[in-house]
């Protein structure tokens, strides 16, 4: 069975595109070969900055001949049917066979496709792959029309077996296939021929090219960590950077350099970010001091001076970059020491957050109010939380964050500490953005928790109010992430509070602010169906007099839905929803995100639905406690059987209620009990009720459910021995009322009617 | 090839000139207008359009008013030089030709680490884009290497290869200089040795003051609008002159486009253009560039008329 080797040799392929390109090459070629009737044992893709390579092992030498037989119309069928059959098969009448088809004679078409040589198929498939390659961005060059990521120079396409190797002939826009490639651009620039994959990989290595990106990454990491270790340092791990650097070199040579003394005072994050973003350097940390003291750069070549010139050049560029960073750092420190964090934040009044939601300063004022309100609910001092909210985004105005936006929050902590603010306030500068993703940590310091919640709830209420909710895959403001952040903050800290009033009040406050800053209009009057909108909180009447509206009046207008976000040229207004509607809608969004979150933790959707149907469902911690207890309960035998018992009781009861037109709800009396099992059930219900009530009161759902579980045996026994719908009307009514006690008890824990199965 | 190290800024320029002349490029002179980069020279912008082959190399003095630092910053200048090469169609060995030019100015590829790092080029004001790299030498960007795909909204067919060298930065690296003003302009052994600062420190100060504080913004705005109007008028004047000859005035119109672009840069440096207005101004210049490109491709040099 032959092996196939393909190499597409080009000018430098962007590092970020290489991994996907080598997989695309593998998939497109192997899919094409299989579709054309070839099979193979294994395939592997490789990439370097200048080549994409595919090695396929154990390819079949030719595709199998295919014989296809199709039954056509009967010989007696109308002419049109026959013509249609000829068209669909592409045959002529004399090529058809006539055979007995059970019910008389019919035409048959026998189509034979002969097997094809692998080389022929490969040439076709590879050319089609090259012409339709899914590069994220591709280009033309010279006078040609072919597109590739950068100019394509040569195609190596070689089919080899025990007897030798043979070039698969193809020509793509003047680039003819061959059996040669080139080594490293500077160290081994000559062309050479190869006979198969092993020969190719070995010769490349001699020509200073490590073919596998994994091997290059491993080599880099190995040398980097050794070199750092020898200097008493450790390399700061960065997998993304390692993959990128491995895509920038064919022959990695690791060099380590010291960072100048002048720059060691910079925060480690600044050194790390500057070196990574601008220079693609790794950082080396001193484990004793935590400081970044050296860098690792990866050259693509080895030199007679062992990299001394290269290192000197890189060091010089780094010094220029770090001088800039130090300038920003010192400037920013001077600013916060003279005017404080709030002084630094002053400019945010002129930075637009969103054209319908006002400036960053407006937003910070809202977050402050929310943080103050949330603080007592999460154990934080309201004044501290408010202060943290005021300064948490100040660093957006710093020179450093202007240069490195990814350092937002991180710089805030340094600057807040330099301004003499307490640690709890400083730490919130960074922590209030968290959790940034599903794997990011959830803040636990109360002040940080309060500001983080306020920040996210403000974002959500704001975009909900202006109707910019996520749809389908579109979520440009990362609102799903914000909602999940709120959920994780609440659950992770066991915070216990009702979300609805907070969201509703935040929305109302938002609208008050928008009216006052003329971002929202207030209905001033209506005549003949024309609405008159007034912008700003001062109402100007037709007679020219004006009056300032009080907060109470503004709130009344907001409750009445008399606020609009814009009026079109045609005079059509777009009103804000009432805060109560906005908060209901947002709450169900929280519930949707919570379902996804809990499902990931293995809690069934019907269990969640059963708990969502209970009152107090806007207290997320309570909701989850209930759901977790119910999920655990349902996993036990007692739980599963009790649900069956409950459902049976509920069905009988519902049917009887529908038939009788009454609700059976109270009055069950043991004196009408005829059977021993009936009396046992009465006793069990008394005991259970006595245990469940206090457990529910203390929100100990597990305790309540275990008390409920004790009902299982009595309920089962009751249904076995007793028929509810007896002829004796008094006994029947008494038994139905007894069932209603079961229903009430069970439904007090969760809406068990929603449990499936 | 062993090359001696160059000794001055001008020697590096002279070596690039003779290298690219030896590769068959027409060595042109700078365009006689204020431009932000070598790409604005009609020898690049317009000649990248149309089907006719082209090969040119030149130094272009370039002005970026917002980059002025009164001559104090070691690397930043409001007036600086770019070296520009444009070859159409891009030859298959353009990377090798480029590396040859680095060798010519004393950058030895066996001692240095030269890398082609992804950097796609786009000029919103020219309606142009291309794919290529920034070229790194020991971690420092020394050139921009681009295969033009579109200029003035037109697909480039054939594709031009464009090389841009930031001369001051490149020369500082080759000469081992830390502050641009300390760089020898002519040979330090000359009877009258001149440093970059001897020639440009004072002008950097003067222009920085004018660019940032003094330029009359009302006048600049008026000039911008005049240039825009003139560009459109020239192009609307029609192809036929008073004697009935077909003369499309693509170049005079393009001069007005260049003027508008520089006036916009000056207004920007004076800080009178808000973030939202910025986009609108860039769009106006781009519209002019596109009209000039539309006109150029109808001319003989633009391949629109048989020679």
UniProtKB/TrEMBL annotation, chain A:
Enzymatic reactions: tRNA(Gly) + glycine + ATP = glycyl-tRNA(Gly) + AMP + diphosphate
Pfam family, one: tRNA_synt_2f
Keywords carried by this UniProt record: Aminoacyl-tRNA synthetase, ATP-binding, Cytoplasm, Ligase, Nucleotide-binding, Protein biosynthesis
SUPFAM superfamilies: HD-domain/PDEase-like (SSF109604)
PANTHER family linked: GLYCINE--TRNA LIGASE, CHLOROPLASTIC_MITOCHONDRIAL 2 (PTHR30075:SF2), GLYCYL-TRNA SYNTHETASE (PTHR30075)
Complex and partners: Tetramer of two alpha and two beta subunits.
Family note: Belongs to the class-II aminoacyl-tRNA synthetase family.
Name by which UniProt lists this protein: Glycine--tRNA ligase beta subunit
Source species: Albidovulum sediminicola
From TrEMBL, chain B:
Gene3D superfamilies xrefs: Bira Bifunctional Protein, Domain 2 (3.30.930.10), Class II aaRS and biotin synthetases, domain 2 (1.20.58.180)
Source organism: Albidovulum sediminicola
PANTHER family noted in UniProt: GLYCINE--TRNA LIGASE, CHLOROPLASTIC_MITOCHONDRIAL 2 (PTHR30075:SF2), GLYCYL-TRNA SYNTHETASE (PTHR30075)
Highest taxon in the source lineage: Bacteria
Name of the gene: glyQ
Keywords (A to Z) from UniProt: Aminoacyl-tRNA synthetase, ATP-binding, Cytoplasm, Ligase, Nucleotide-binding, Protein biosynthesis
InterPro entries, per database record: aa-tRNA-synth_II/BPL/LPL, Gly-tRNA-synth_heterodimer, Gly-tRNA_ligase_asu
Name of the protein in its database record: Glycine--tRNA ligase alpha subunit
PROSITE patterns: AA_TRNA_LIGASE_II_GLYAB
Subcellular location per the Swiss-Prot or TrEMBL entry: Cytoplasm
């Amino acid at each position: 069975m032959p092996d196939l080797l393909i190499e597409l040799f080009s000018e430098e392929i962007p590092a970020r595109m290489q991994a996907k390109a080598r997989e695309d090459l593998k998939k497109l070629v192997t899919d094409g070969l299989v579709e054309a009737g070839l099979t193979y044992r294994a395939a592997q893709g490789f990439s370097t900055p200048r080549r994409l390579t595919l090695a396929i092992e154990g390819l079949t030498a030719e595709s199998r001949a295919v014989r296809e037989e199709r039954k056509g119309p009967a010989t007696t069928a109308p002419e049109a049917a026959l013509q249609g059959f000829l068209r669909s098969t592409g045959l002529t009448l004399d090529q058809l066979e006539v055979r007995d088809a059970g019910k008389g004679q019919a035409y048959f078409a026998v189509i034979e496709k002969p097997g094809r040589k692998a080389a022929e198929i490969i040439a076709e498939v590879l050319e089609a792959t090259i012409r339709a390659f899914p590069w994220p961005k591709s280009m033309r060059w010279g006078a040609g029309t072919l597109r590739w990521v950068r100019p394509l120079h040569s195609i190596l396409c070689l089919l080899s077996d025990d007897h030798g190797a043979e070039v698969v002939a193809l020509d793509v826009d003047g680039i003819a296939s061959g059996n040669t490639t080139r080594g490293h651009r500077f160290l081994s620039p000559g062309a050479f021929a190869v006979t198969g994959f092993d020969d190719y990989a070995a010769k490349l290595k001699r020509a200073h090219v490590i073919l596998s990106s994994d091997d290059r990454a491993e080599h880099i990491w190995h040398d980097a960590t050794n070199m750092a270790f020898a200097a008493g340092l450790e390399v700061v791990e960065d997998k993304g950077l390692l993959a990128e650097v491995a895509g920038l070199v064919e022959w990695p040579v690791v060099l380590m350099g010291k960072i100048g003394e002048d720059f060691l005072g910079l925060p480690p994050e600044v050194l790390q970010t500057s070196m990574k973003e601008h220079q693609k350097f790794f950082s080396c940390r001193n484990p004793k001091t935590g400081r970044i003291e050296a860098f690792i750069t990866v050259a693509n070549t080895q030199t007679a001076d062992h990299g001394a010139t290269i290192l000197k050049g890189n060091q010089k560029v780094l010094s220029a970059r770090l001088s800039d960073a130090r300038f920003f750092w010192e400037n920013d420190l001077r600013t916060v020491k003279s005017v404080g964090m709030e002084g630094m934040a002053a400019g945010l009044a002129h930075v637009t957050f969103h054209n319908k939601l006002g400036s960053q300063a407006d937003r910070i004022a809202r977050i402050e109010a929310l943080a103050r309100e949330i603080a007592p609910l999460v154990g934080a001092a309201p004044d501290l939380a408010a202060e943290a909210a005021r300064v948490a985004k100040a660093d957006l105005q710093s020179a450093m964050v202007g240069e490195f936006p990814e350092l937002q929050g991180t710089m805030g902590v340094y600057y807040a500490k330099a301004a003499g603010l307490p640690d709890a306030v400083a730490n919130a500068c960074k922590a209030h953005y968290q959790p940034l993703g599903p794997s990011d940590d959830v803040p636990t310091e109360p002040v940080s928790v309060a500001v983080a919640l306020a920040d996210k709830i403000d974002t959500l209420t704001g975009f909900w109010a202006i109707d910019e909710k996520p749809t389908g895959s579109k979520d440009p403001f990362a609102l799903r992430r914000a909602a999940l952040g709120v959920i994780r903050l609440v659950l992770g800290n066991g915070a216990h509070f009702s979300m609805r009033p907070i969201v509703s009040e935040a929305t109302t406050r938002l609208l008050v602010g928008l009216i006052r800053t003329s971002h929202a209009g207030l209905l001033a009057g209506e005549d003949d169906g024309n609405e008159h909108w007034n912008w700003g909180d001062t109402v100007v009447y037709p007679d020219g007099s004006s009056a300032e509206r009080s907060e109470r009046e503004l709130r009344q207008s907001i409750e009445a839905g008399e606020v609009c976000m814009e009026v079109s040229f045609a005079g059509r207004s777009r009103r804000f929803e009432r805060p109560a509607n906005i908060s209901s809608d947002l709450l169900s969004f929280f519930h949707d995100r919570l379902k996804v979150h809990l499902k990931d933790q293995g809690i069934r959707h019907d269990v969640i639905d059963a708990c969502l149907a209970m009152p107090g469902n806007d207290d997320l911690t309570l909701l989850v406690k209930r759901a977790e207890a119910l999920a655990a309960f349902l996993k036990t035998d007692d739980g599963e059987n009790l649900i069956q018992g409950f459902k049976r009781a509920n069905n009988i009861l519902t049917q009887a209620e529908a038939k009788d037109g009454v609700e059976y709800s109270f009055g069950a009396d043991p004196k009408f009990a005829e059977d021993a099992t009936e009396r046992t059930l009465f006793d069990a219900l008394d005991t259970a009720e006595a245990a469940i009530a206090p457990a529910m009161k203390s929100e100990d759902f597990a305790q309540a459910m275990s008390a409920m579980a004790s009902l299982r045996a009595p309920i089962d026994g009751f249904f076995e021995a007793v028929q509810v719908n007896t002829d004796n009307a008094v006994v029947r009514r008494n038994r139905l009322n007894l069932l209603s006690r079961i229903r009430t008890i069970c439904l007090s824990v969760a809406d068990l009617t929603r449990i499936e199965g | 090839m062993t090359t001696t190290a160059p000794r001055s800024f001008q020697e590096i320029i002279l070596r690039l000139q003779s290298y690219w002349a030896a590769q068959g490029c027409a060595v042109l002179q700078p365009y006689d207008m204020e431009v932000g980069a070598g790409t604005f020279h009609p020898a690049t912008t317009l000649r990248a359009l149309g089907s006719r082959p082209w090969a040119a190399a030149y130094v272009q003095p370039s002005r970026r008013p917002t980059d002025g630092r009164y001559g104090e910053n070691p690397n930043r200048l409001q007036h600086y030089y770019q070296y520009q090469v444009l070859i159409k169609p891009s030859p298959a060995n353009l990377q090798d030709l480029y590396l040859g030019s680095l060798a010519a100015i004393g950058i030895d590829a066996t001692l240095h680490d030269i890398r082609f790092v992804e950097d796609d080029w786009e000029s919103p004001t020219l309606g142009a884009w291309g794919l290529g790299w920034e070229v790194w030498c020991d971690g420092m960007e020394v050139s921009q290497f681009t295969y033009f795909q579109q200029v003035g909204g037109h697909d480039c067919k054939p594709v031009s290869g464009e090389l841009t060298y930031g001369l001051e930065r490149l020369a500082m690296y080759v000469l081992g200089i830390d502050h641009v003003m300390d760089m020898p302009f002519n040979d330090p052994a000359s009877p009258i040795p001149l440093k970059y600062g001897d020639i440009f420190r004072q002008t950097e100060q003067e222009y920085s003051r004018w660019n940032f504080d003094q330029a009359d913004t009302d006048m600049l705005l008026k000039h911008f609008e005049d240039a825009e109007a003139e560009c459109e008028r020239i192009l609307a004047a029609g192809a036929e002159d008073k004697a009935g000859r077909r003369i499309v005035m693509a170049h005079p119109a393009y001069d007005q486009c260049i003027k508008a672009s520089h006036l916009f840069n000056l207004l920007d440096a004076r800080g009178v253009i808000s973030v939202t207005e910025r986009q609108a101004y860039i769009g106006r210049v781009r519209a002019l560039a596109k009209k000039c490109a539309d006109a150029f491709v109808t001319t003989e040099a633009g391949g629109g008329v048989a020679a």
